[in-house]
Amino acid sequence: MQTVSPRDRYEYTSRSKGEKNWFYFAQVYVGYPPRPYFLDPDTGSDLTWLQCDAPCVRCTTGFHPLYRPSNDLVVCRDPVCASLHSGDYTCDTPEQCDYEVEYADGGSSLGVLVNDFFALNLTTGSRMSPRLTLGCGYDQLPGASEHPLDGVLGLGRGKSSIVSQLHDQGVVKNIVGHCLNSQGGFLFFGDDVYDPSRVTWTPMSRDDPKHYSAGPAELRFGGRSTGFKNLNVIFDSGSSYTYFTSQIYHTLLSLIKKEVNGKSLNEATDDYTLPVCWKGKKPFKTTREVRKYFKSLALVFASSWRSKVQYEISPESYLIISSKGNACLGILNGTDIGLSNFNMIGDISMQDRLVIYDNERQRMGWTPANCDQPPKFRSVM
Question: 261-278, pLDDT tens digit by residue?
């Protein structure tokens, strides 16, 4: 993990190709001496955990050897432990904190909390290694969207998240953001990497304290309302794709099919990369080649009682090109994976822009950006 100023930190993310999809990972150094691990940067969950040799009962294939846990166990009554349990939980083993986290795709991690060093390099040339709480995961079940990573980097709103812990130690402001593109990108903590006057801001939802949600939204297609309003929308960097509830998904799919009908595209029924794919007269190489056949989506949020802000999702932000050269729809049916009434914006629809989660002011923001390089930093006053 590297930093951009004494107040703010970034880490590079890379993109790797799995069997059916691309996914992002962040390289994080943990322990003493610090060792590298590839973690899934996830704004949809709080706890950071590593697959752990405790020993491991069930572990999936990762990029690095299993994490060797420190001997610094988190006690059961620690505030971070309490944040991972509901209500008046019991402490059968007071000297340690057991945890279990489950994800929307059916994956899970079970383990124990430990404290260990996270290496941070400051742009001043110095280094700091705060001791943070993470999960030693010794029993993992892979989900439907399994990625071959060493664990999860929790960037959510809860007390156990990395940004919350750094904030509680006075290291950074409670702000996290990311800039992703087809090649990789970067993550950052703090507020010194962007000009807030150039960011489109909207309040976080007060009805959903667990997720990064921008509140009720209207869905538009090609500039026209789809009739769906007051949507509950969360932003989740741990999800490769974007999900809508079943009714919205099927309506949107019908609109898209109607739009591309008769435009030199045919459904590629022999391509199982994603549920719906289209093929042209010859294989496509990039989404830019097919954007002319599709229209943009937009989520319109009421940022105040008299103004609205728009989050546009261009065709490049909801299509992928499969290995067969077909254009596949990266919007999926969230009801099928048990998302209930949630609509989820995933990585595919957050590319080529800076997305900021400002927990200090309870607001979210976005702005177009070049994610190839970390930004030039504002002066620290």
Answer: 888 899 999 999 999 999
Tokens of 360: 């200090």
Cis, bond preceding 6 (omega within 30 deg of 0):
no
Q: Alpha carbon of 378 to those of 4, 60, 191, 196, 375: distances in Å?
A: 10, 41, 9, 11, 9
Torsions phi, psi of 303, nearest 5? -75, -20
Indicate the pTM of the whole model. 0.90
Confirm whether 42 is a catalytic residue: yes
**Which of 237, 235, 242 has the alpha carbon at shortest distance from 316?**
242
pLDDT at 291 over 60: yes
pLDDT tens for residues 84-143? 988 778 888 999 999 999 887 778 899 999 999 998 765 455 678 899 999 999 998 876
Q: Indicate the residue type of 194.
A: Y
Supply φ then ψ for residue 98, to 5 degrees: -85, 145
Q: Which of the following is catalytic: 40, 98, 236, 358?
A: 236
Here the tokens at position 179 are 């800039």
Pairing outcome for strands 49-51 and 131-141: parallel
Our answer to whether residue 236 is catalytic in this structure is: yes
- Structure tokens of 80? 């971070």
Structure tokens at 10: 């970034």
Listed in sequence order, the residues at least 6 apart from 357 whose beta carbon sits closer than 8 Å to its beta carbon are 43, 155, 157, 175, 176, 177, 204, 212, 235, 364
**Are 361 and 368 within 8 A, CB to CB?**
no
66 forms bridges with which residues in the sheet?
Answer: none
Catalytic choice (42, 98, 192, 271): 42
The answer to whether the peptide bond before residue 209 is cis (omega within 30 degrees of 0) is no
Quickly tell me which residue has 């809508």 as its tokens.
244
User: Which token pair is 335?
Assistant: 């009801």
What pLDDT does 48 receive?
Answer: 96
To which H or E segment does residue 50 belong? strand 49-51
Beta bridge partners of 367: 354
What's the pLDDT score for residue 53? 93
More confident residue, 157 or 121: 157
